[in-house]
Amino acid sequence: MTSRRFWLKRTECLPKIRLVKILFTPSARSQFLSALTYIRRDNPSAALRFRLRAEAVLKRLGKFPDSGRSLPEFPELPHREVIVTPHRFFYRVKGGTVWIVAVWHGAQLAKEPQ
Questions:
Q1: What is the pTM of this model?
Q2: Is the pLDDT of residue 68 over 90?
């Protein structure tokens, strides 16, 4: 009985995590779907693994929106990125929403996000 009481007290002290929405801009959604289609053409199981990894990483952004790194090419911008090898997901936090603004292959040269 004491262990349960201890557990309740510990969880009451933990900070509440505020979840934010994750949305794609139309162009980012198109880029993500194009990447999936390209991978699926040669290897459907790899496409599924990539999609599941991307979903897991983006879900984490819902809990920890600042967990991605700032863009090394453009450190002054408010955009951040997360990597789902070999793709880079560029995003910006606005209000209670994480906006995925671009999805690029890691070999692509970065241009300033809009």
A1: 0.79
A2: yes
